[in-house]
Each structure stands twice: as C-alpha cells, then as structure tokens.
Amino acid sequence: MSNIFDEMADALAEAGQTVGDKIKEARDVTALKAKLRSHQKNVDDTYNRIGKEYFSKHKDDEENEFSDEIAKIKAEQKEIEELKKCISDLKS
User: Fold this and answer.
1) Domain around 19
2) How many domains does the chain divide into?
3) How far apart are CA 73 and CA 71, in angstroms?
4) Which of 2, 16, 28, 48 has the fewest C-beta atoms under 10 angstroms from its C-beta?
5) DSSP for 7-76?
6) Same domain as 54, residue 28
7) pLDDT at position 1, please?
8) Dist. CA 65–CA 51, nearest whole Å
9) In the 8-state DSSP scheme, what is residue 92?
10) All residues at 6 or more sequence positions from 61 whose CB lies less than 8 Å from its CB, including other chains
C-alpha cells in the first residue's frame, strides 16, 4: 500500500516539476518578448526621427526620390489642420 503512495508522490513531484519548468519557460519567453518590443520600438522611433528630419529638409525640393510620399504627407497635414479648425470652431 505504501508503494502506491510512493508512486503517487513521485508522480505528483514530477508533475509539479514539469509545471514549474513550464512556468519558468513562459516567464523567460515573456521577458524576452518585452525586450524585443523595447528594441523594436527604439528602431521604429529612430526611423521615425530620420523620416521627419528628411521630410523637414526636403519638403520644398522640386524633385527627389520621395516626392510622391512628401506630397501625401503635405496633403495629410493640410487635412489635419482643416479638421483641427473644424473642431475648434465647433467648440466655440
């Protein structure tokens, strides 16, 4: 009879170890994913900053490799300003 209890105790200990290992693995993966997101955000922020600087320096150029994109940004900025004015007018 004690043999059955010993086997059950061993099985429970093994199951507990497996669960513990899975929890540690999940925690480690979560920590690595958080680091990955942080590094990706840093890269995205740098791309964004470079893009804004490029736009600022070249927005009035007649022709360049990003003329279409610059025109789209200018159109969006105009629409943003119009929407802000409409919002301001509605609040008044």
Assistant:
1) 2-58
2) 2
3) 5
4) 2
5) HHHHHHHHHHHHHHHHHHHHHHHHHHHHHHHHHHHHHHHHHHHHHHHHHHHHTT-SS-TTHHHHHHHHHH
6) yes
7) 59
8) 13
9) -
10) 67, 70
Instruction: Please provide the size of the chain in residues.
Output: 92
Provide the CA 58 distance to its chain's centre, in angstroms.
28
pLDDT digits (tens, 9 = 90+) for 41-83: 999 999 999 999 999 999 999 888 999 999 999 999 999 999 9
Q: In this predicted model, what pLDDT tens digit does every residue of 8-30 receive, in sequence order? A: 777 888 888 888 888 999 999 99
Query: How much is the CA Rg of the chain, to the nearest whole Å?
Result: 29
Residue type, 27: R
52 plus 76 within the same structural domain: no
Query: Do 11 and 48 reside in the same domain of the chain?
Result: yes
